[in-house]
Write a structure and sequence with these properties.
This protein has helices spanning 9-33, 37-61, 65-93, 102-108, 110-121, 148-172, 179-201, 214-217, 219-230, 239-247, 269-273, 284-287, 291-297, 339-383, 388-417, 429-443, 464-478, 511-514, 532-543; strands at 128-136, 139-146, 252-257, 262-265, 303-310, 313-324, 327-337, 425-428, 448-451, 458-461, 486-494, 497-504, 547-552, 558-565. It is α+β, with helices and mostly antiparallel strands. The longest helix is centred in the middle third of the chain and has 45 residues, at 339-383. It is elongated and about 140 Å long. GO terms for molecular function: ATP binding; phosphorelay response regulator activity; protein histidine kinase activity; protein kinase activator activity.
Length: 579
């Protein structure tokens, strides 16, 4: 087979090499990070360009007419594949995924498939009407007269090409640098061969006749696409998708690159932040107020914070990391006006503070008054001669007064139990449980308490843990139907939890009452349970991350089971640690 040398083939060889490298890079990208319509269509597009330019270069190097004609037919495999693939790439790049149905995409390749079949067989000269070998500048070139199907195929390819350019061009206007530059590189790269093709096909000087330079002009998009991929992260980030979403969102959207620099904002950001200063190109720490609060909370997931921006207006900043297959690409920060919600939260917080103060004052006054009432009743009971009926009535009044004092204690403990600011520390369950038993034993000398060996189990809690045990122990004694109640106390630590069991020999609790005894499903102190003490028990245990339930005791009575998560204690904090 004879070969000839020509400089016209060098741009085509260059374009083939660059396009081949880009296609291989895209294929490797898919293997590492998974399939993506943009990357897959880019890989097919660059592969088609590489095949197109490589076979055109081979056609130029060949001298034999038959071989040149075969190469001419083969190069159209790449040429006719490139146009619909570029259109698919434009749809994927601009996030028009709803149009990327496999049936729609397949239909785009029907015309190229028919064209290629007709070109290779050439029935009734529908593909080409003739061909001839001529010499241009000492180079043997093949000139082919297009048939009607070839003309239709060329028009079809141009239509898809310009549709793709129009789609990208429309969205390029919505982008900020560097992404506008990225889209511009794609447009310029495809415009150059489009213009050359128009001049070639219309026989417009200086490209009238001679060597077909359309494949040679593909060196330009090969270079611009390469710059877009390697310099402007064409395959790593889809800014057009972000711009599209941002344009239709009422929230402000800020896109940051991996260095935390603002690279894109939508139109809502500056009004929400109350600033007219430019944000693009600035570090997020300078462009966004209180951005450091997001850094403090960031743990690989999204984080948010509320910011006072002007007057009494608040916005919420939410930062969401952008990554692909574990590789960080940047962040999206949403800016949302939350002024009504924040004002409500502040008003609620203020009201809670006022209620807390009022609660303390009322409880203080009630306790003082009740202590005075109980003191006078005690004096009357001890020093005044009373009838049996009067003494019974005064003793009833004394019990009610003492119950009122206990109620104020419970209310105070409930306020503390629901206060997230109540400081917690590491407490030993065994030691706390023993102290609670001693406290209840002093107030109820008629009761018997059997305490098993208690483990040294540490939990994260506060002083309210003692209230839990005291209330359950008192409940076991007060609601017993025996003159001398018996209570058994045990505990065990296993599987990251400590389980406390307080068993009594009282009348027991029916299965129906077990589900409501803690006031579950009822409104606080109005619950149909056995009293405010058990409602308090469940509230405190739940806030500590634990659970409480009731089991039947044998042969009679109930067992209150309290489970609490063990705290992670550093070695230096353990009693048996050695320095």
């Amino acid at each position: 087979m004879n070969w000839q040398h020509t400089a016209y083939a060098y741009p085509m060889v260059f374009a083939a090499v660059v396009a081949g490298v880009l296609s291989a890079y895209a294929v490797q990208f898919v293997r590492r990070r998974g399939r993506n319509p943009t990357v897959v269509s880019f890989a097919v597009l660059t592969a088609a360009v590489a095949f197109w330019t490589a076979t055109t270069a081979v056609k130029l190097f060949l001298v034999d007419p038959g071989a040149k004609l075969l190469a001419y037919k083969l190069l159209h495999v790449g040429a006719m594949t490139a146009a619909p693939t570029f259109f698919v790439f434009a749809l994927a790049y601009t996030d028009r995924r709803e149009l990327l149905d496999r049936h729609v995409v397949a239909s785009l390749y029907v015309v190229p498939a028919v064209f290629l079949a007709v070109l290779f067989v050439n029935p009734l000269e529908l593909g080409y009407t003739g061909w001839e070998l001529s010499t241009v500048d000492g180079v043997a070139v093949l000139s082919v007269a297009d048939g009607p199907v070839s003309v239709f195929g060329l028009v079809y390819g141009f239509v898809l090409l310009f549709l793709g350019l129009g789609i990208i061009g429309q969205y390029a206007l919505e982008l900020d640098r560097p992404y506008r530059t990225q889209a511009t590189l794609l447009i310029v790269g495809m415009l150059v061969p489009s213009v050359v093709a128009a001049l070639e096909l219309t026989h417009t000087p200086p490209l009238a006749g001679g060597v077909n330079l359309i494949p040679a002009s593909l060196a330009v998009p090969s270079v611009t696409f390469g710059i877009a991929v390697y310099r402007y992260k064409l395959l790593d980030i889809l800014p057009l998708a972000y711009a599209t979403a941002g344009a239709h969102s009422a929230d402000g959207l800020v896109v940051l690159d991996a260095d935390g620099v603002v690279v894109h904002v939508n139109d809502h950001v500056r009004p929400l932040l109350g600033t007219g200063d430019p944000l693009l190109g600035r570090p997020a720490s300078e462009a966004l107020p209180n951005y450091g609060d997001l850094d403090d909370d960031l743990d690989g997931e999204h984080s948010s914070c509320d910011v006072l921006v002007e007057g009494e207006r608040y916005v919420e900043l939410t930062r969401i990391p952008l990554d692909r297959a574990g590789d960080p690409l940047g962040w999206v920060v949403s800016v949302r006006d939350v002024t009504p919600r924040k004002h409500y939260e502040l008003a609620l917080e203020s009201r809670n503070d006022e209620l807390e103060v009022l609660n303390r004052i009322v409880r203080h006054d009630i306790r003082n008054d009740m202590q005075l009432v109980t003191a006078y009743i005690d004096i009357v009971l001890e020093h005044e001669p009373l009838s049996d009926e009067a003494r019974s009535q005064l003793e009833t009044a004394l019990r009610r007064a003492l119950n009122t004092v206990d109620l104020t204690d419970v209310l105070g403990q409930l306020m503390r139990a629901t206060n997230d600011d109540e400081r917690r520390r590491h407490l030993d369950v065994g030691a706390t449980l023993r102290e609670a038993v001693e406290d209840v034993r002093e107030g109820h000398p008629n009761a018997t308490f059997a305490v098993a060996d208690l483990p040294s189990a540490t939990v994260s809690a506060n002083d309210l843990l003692d209230s839990v045990f005291v209330n359950v122990l008192k409940n076991a004694v007060v609601h017993s139907d025996r003159d001398e109640p018996s209570v058994a106390v045990s505990a065990a630590a296993d599987d990251g939890r400590v389980t406390v069991r307080i068993a009594d020999d009282g009348p027991g609790i029916s299965d129906e009452q077990k589900s409501v005894v803690f006031g579950k499903g009822a409104k606080g102190l109005e619950s149909p349970g056995t009293g405010t003490g058990l409602y308090l028990v469940e509230t405190i245990v739940t806030n500590f991350g634990g659970t409480v339930h009731i089991e039947d005791n044998e042969p009679r009575g109930s067992v209150f089971v309290i489970e609490l998560p063990l705290a992670a204690v550093e070695a230096a904090d353990r009693p048996d640690s050695v320095d």
